[in-house]
Amino acid sequence: MPKHSSRSKLIAGALAFSLLAGGTSIAIPAPSAFAAVSNSMFVDTIPAWAQKHVSKLALQGIINGYKTSSGTTEFRPLKSVSQEEAVVMALRFAGLEGEVDPDGIVAYPDSFKVSSYAKPYIIVAFKNGLLDQNDEYANAAANPKAAWGTTPATREWVTKLLVKAIDKKQLADDLSKTASTFADGNQITAKYLGYVNAAVSLDLVKGVSATKFDPKAPVNRASLATLFSRAEKQYKVPYAGQVSGIVTAQTATSITLYSEGKETTYTLDSNTLYYSADSDNAIAAGDIKLYTDVTLIGNSGKALYVETQGTEQHVKTTIAKLDRINTTDRYFYAWVNDEPVKFTYSSAVTVKDSTGKTLQISDLKRDTNLTIVQDTFRTAPQVVSITAEAQTGANTVTGQFYSAGSGLINYLVDGTLQSKFLADNVAVVINGIDSPTVSDLLKDVDNIKLTLNDNQQVTRIEVVNRNVSTIDSATVVNYSGDNKLLTVYDPATSNANALFLTDSTKIDYSGSSITVSQARSYLVANRKVKITYSGKNIISLSFIYKQTGSLVSVNTTDKLLSVKLDSGEKVSIPYVSPLLQIPGVSVPTIGSLQAGDTVTVLLDANQEKAATIQVHKTLQYQVVSANASTKLVTVKAADNSQKDISLVNVPITDENGNALTVGALTSGTIINVPYIGSNIQSVKTITMKYGTVSSVAASSLTVTEPNGTSSTVTFSKGIKVIKGTQTTYSSSAVAAGDIIQVYKDENEQTIVTVAVGDKRTFWKYDAPNATLWTYKNTSEDNSNFAYITSNTKILYNNASIQVSALKDGDTITVYAFNNTALKIVKS
């Protein structure tokens, strides 16, 4: 595996380089070179599929063009790239150029010919595993008539270099035996097959056609730029002038981004480029939606390149009724579900009524119905827009619902039929029903309040007389189809209820909607149903084919399950020999069930007994490998057992809820997988962080990672601290300065492992392998080595020293995780 340096330390000058022509010197532009970059930076024609990637890498300072005699700049997209040129680009992309010693003396075998400027780069590539020395020496020896360095880089060779540069060699090894999906896959050299498969699965490379890869074809400058541009999704780099954030405002001449706790406004002009992350085609500025994620490259306050990272808007919507406003301190209270809630807003908040008329927030009247949109990315959410019911005119009328259709609602006022036109996106509010629509209104039952806009169109319909009740486990006593009268027994109250079905009653049978007449044959004595009703009319009825709730107890003598439903009602469900599905238990028995388990009990056809018992449980795995094509993922459990899980039609997100693909589940990724029985509900990736604790609070801690990034970890589901042989469950066991590993377990509990310094005697440092060796403390000692990275801090008397300053026999204390040292202190 390549031992890459941290890329967070790179600056513009260190990242800027050319796709070199043979013998051409390396060009490293100063930061001011950004000013010359524009939509027309290159005068020659660049293929449409490469324009996005060439533009982006040029603006990031990664590639340059060639100056012509006339003073213009050409990119020369179809010019082939040599192997040594590709290596130089890969090293700079991987952040390893700092290891290159241009004045160093480098010797290679006579058969391995490399240009003078490239020699020190090649040795660094060998050292860090981007190139295999024996492999490349053999390649050179097999082709003695051509210099290895100036040999054109082929598509398969560059693909291997690229995959190693982004540290995905393990994925390539995992896919080395997988057949290629390309028709000419048999032409791919065996040692490159896994790398081609890996690059395809990561969406880094595509074929020259839908079915052809053409592995031996040389790579041109446009293709290589495209490859490294796509690789940025897998290997993030902080480029000078580049920022990722959320769009909070946009006009024809400016765009504002929220990033790292602050908002910054950039100017836009006709040269600004707009793209989306999932396409190579340019988009219009108007395609960027507010409150979505974007990446922006800018200079001196001007946006040069804007790339959307998805369409998800980081906002939430709340329906509320206004109580009072404090315009001085910019907050207001509104009633949400009969609770007063405080909302804060800024001077930039937009307020409109339901007709689109712009208002001042001070125009809003008490008891006005509001649709409030808040951001979800600030620590303290701010209101970004408010839509209010119309504030002027005779804006409400009342009556009894009669019918609706063809854009009209008809209602009775003192026995007289009246009608109103419905506005677009009319809101319907019915107590006890989630997300109701006009079709949920009941003729001759519902008294309604209509909110009108200035054009007398209905924008909101509120049912004011309906009180909805629910019977979770009713038992049918009898049903009279002639008058649609259903009599049921309510076990929670031991009462009988006589209720009427109507043409508006929604009926569910095993997940399918059926009519009242179709339900007649099923409404027989002892049939179990769930009913919601208002007055004497049934609003919805569902035949119970499963029960979900918390397991109270298991009576193995009488063979009864006691389950507490979400409504609070307890039900007893008989069982004989049910199918048991308990995640993580290979051979479950009734005795495997635990009180408090969330369970779904599927009933038999007669609704009498438990046919299947499914336990709800989340398991945590480590990804071994993932096949993006089949969506089959091999995972390893805590006991090191492995199995394959299918993620077809399973949503995958990161810890922040951002959608991911199977391709993002790289080897070593930790995932939480919630199950209902044997059915996977979703997958969430878990970030394993390493670093030094900056501060500790009662419910959170701040950790600074080796690359300098600081983040806050919360303990919303508790904390477990492991320090040596001691385990505690309080944040007081963690102190500022502790070196930790932190992640969330399958129950969302925060697990913090504090590194306990291991006192050792230094022996030697193996520079080519970046490995520090110490003498064994005992004959059974297996931990006498540690890997050193560019992030490893080595201290003596609280001052940083180089690893070369350590001498045989020095006493050191090593703080490490997984044999990788984070800090070493010399005594």
From TrEMBL:
Keywords: Signal. The keyword Transcription does not apply. Residues 1-35 form the signal peptide. Residues 37-104, 179-242 form the SLH domain. PROSITE patterns: SLH. Pfam families: SLH. This is SLH domain-containing protein. It comes from Paenibacillus glycanilyticus. The lineage of its organism: Bacteria, Bacillati, Bacillota, Bacilli, Bacillales.
